[in-house]
């Protein structure tokens, strides 16, 4: 194997004028002259034949060297942004592998070449368009009007199909790229393969890109999986798309509370903790009463207070365990109530509470009723303050068209949309596209996305506990900085165990830091992704994150010094000269960060499978 250490790496300068072509022309001319001398009988036949052959051999050798220089210069014109028919994708896929695009494995020699190029003006080395045809690249090179520096992809002549083991992607994949860099194109490639692999595919698209949805739809129909389920929270048409029940899967009220509170980003504080326990109590009470909690129902009860639910729960205890004269027994523990201060039903409730707390056997008391009683006895002002802050969240999630589609009522005969939940979607191996429409309402998009991710964590957790990880779930979250919350972080951390392969795409780390409250929190989340695909990134913190992940390498620098010295002391001028050649190795970023900002559309650097660094480009899949 060739030693590629920085000091033994061959130092050549491929990016220069192809002087070898001149030399080859001279050798060709010399060979022609030998032939002429032979024709003129000036030279013996054997001699001229021998010299002719020598000239031809050197002409071919130098011509080939010159051709390689010109080919390397042609490659500097890069690869244009390509279109690829969907049918081709199937031929590129391999079992248990993921196809990332076309490209090459990035090695230190490519970093070396980049450094060589940074000393010169690459534009001066570009060949005229017609010359690319000589190298079989007549329609492949990047046109001048396209964004980005083409030469970054032109550092390696041999392009291959980039495959990685699917298992490498269990730990989450992050796609970073500025707007229009090709995040959508990269996601289309990845979800099209997931659809063809027969995974459950869930795409959360906060922006709601019609182009990406169309590609998703075509991927599903082309794979024979029919039309995908389409969820749009702002959809007023009760005949199109589906309704989603995000509270369908739960085992305790706590899970429901966590899901709803995931709408609020950032660290939990005293307010969020109290609000969480409040929702949990109401949800547990509904579950105890055998009523399925929905967002609308929870909103209604939290707004009205615990009295109604508590009354029903206590009634159940009384019906089962109270004697005929329970009222008298209960009243004996109560201070007399002034007449007219309370309504009849309030008085009755106080009696029931007294019965539960003082008369009922401890064995028959339940945790759910105890929790409800805590809310009942809690300061009314404080409770009102907390619920006043919770109400806008519920109002957001239950009003307008979202109310019908996100708290679906099976008895609503005016709504013909089918009701789905994530568990049924997974069991039937369906494909779901959530079109969250953040451009028209960012708050709602973010809230809906957060709750769905929370629901997915519950479903995955349940499946994991039951040992059912046979179905692979491919989750894609575009513009993830809009919906990033604790459930998403949990999915990135532990999703693989529940069979979830997550891919998140975002523009900058700053967006995520803004949502999570700090740069450190954002980096911690991104650190959970085992694989990184970096498209064109413009902002410095994002570039720094990417280059830190990629690591460093040694590159060598050659410093040449030439000196001349004229000494006139001796009476006669005496000239001295010197030349020195110094070669040093310096540790540099393997991908210098400024090049991340110069990548053309659809081109990426990928860090996958724990250290494999790839340079590639992904084509747009068309039909
Ligand atoms: N089907 C297509 N045909 C031709 N060009 C396309 C197609 N899809 C995407 N492109 C081009 O690919 C480039 C990247 O588009 P893409 O939608 O992937 O951007 P993005 O990174 O997702 O940007 P944004 O953050 O704005 O969503 C754009 O220049 C776009 O014009
Ligand atoms: Mg996009």
From TrEMBL:
Keyword Lipid metabolism part of the UniProt annotation: no
Origin: domain of life: Bacteria
Transmembrane region(s): 21-38
UniProt xrefs under InterPro entries: Conjugative_coupling_TraG/TraD (IPR022458), P-loop_NTPase (IPR027417), TraG-D_C (IPR032689)
Positions of the TraD/TraG TraM recognition site domain: 473-600
Keyword Transmembrane helix included in the entry's annotation: yes
Keywords: Membrane, Transmembrane, Transmembrane helix
Pfam families: TraG-D_C
Gene3D superfamilies registered for this protein in UniProt: P-loop containing nucleotide triphosphate hydrolases (3.40.50.300)
Protein name: Conjugative transfer system coupling protein TraD
Organism: Parasutterella muris
